[in-house]
Amino acid sequence: MQPKMGKMDIDYQVLHDAFFKYQTKPKLTTLGDLYHEGKEFEVKLREMKPGILSQELKEALGMPEGAPPPWLINMQRYGPPPSYPQLKIAGLNAPIPPGASFGYQPGGWGKPPVDEYGRPLYGDVFGVHQAEPITYEEEPVDKSKHWGDLEEEEEEEEEEEEEMDEEELEDGIESVDSLSSTPTGVETPDVIDLRKQQRKEPEKPLYQVLEEKEERIAPGTLLGTTHTYVLGATDKTGAKRVDLLRGQKSDKVDITLRPEELEALDDVTLAAKYEEAREEEKMRNQREDFSDMVAEAEKKRKRKMQEKEGKSKKQKDFKF
User: Fold this and answer.
1) Lowest-confidence pick of 29-38, 103-112, 270-279
2) H-helix or E-strand spanning residue 282
3) Measured between alpha carbons, how far is 284 from 248 in angstroms, rounded to an integer?
4) Cα(260)–Cα(254) distance, rounded to whole angstroms?
5) What is the pLDDT, as a whole number, of residue 16?
6) String of b and e for 86-98 (b: at least 16 CB within 10 Å)?
């Protein structure tokens, strides 16, 4: 019978080393990356490029140094991979490395893919048309200047412009000095006041008492008044009377004349024409008399009242 010792049957030194000595940091997902099951077992292909074999892959395939890959024979028979049309593969569309040879012996690079005339099918497999590397001549760099420095040409142009402006300014001053600002015979005043002069307007009265005039109400006039006011007192130039009812000047009259009447036109004829046109204007602007209409409407109202009273009397006198 084993007593309870309050501890597990395990070596605590091994447990301590497992967590604090041999533990490695796990691969974590980046910010914004979505995790799915088996994500940590995926192969990262960022460092791998198609057509370039790593040393680990060569050892796994059993490839000695300078030997072709095992899939080269099938590529020479069926063509390059369609997913990589621009990929250069030695022995297929690119020359084989120096020191290697074609053939099916151990370490051989197979048979180059050519047509019946011996021309390569997929590229320059023999290395005949290799382009020479282009050498670019480097331009001499002036290291005495720093990036961002202004060129001297701009400064020279600015100096020339400043000199031209100064010469034009001097010519302008000389031309102004040669001309006299004041005409001959006029003395220059000692003091010139450039402030604006304030206009002094005549004082106007705050209010004006209008003259009251009594009027007689004509029969049949609607909204008549017993008194009126005279607007615009007569002044030195002679003020004109204003007609308040029409809102127009009373002495403004249009006269129509024929061309043949202009020859025999005199002051008497013109005065007669003026009076005739003025009478026509008064007749045209005279208000309409509503007294007849009011009387007729009153008669109709009385007639309707009498008819209603007669009907009511007949209904009262009727008995069953």
Assistant:
1) 270-279
2) helix 267-285
3) 14
4) 18
5) 93
6) eeebbbbbbbbee
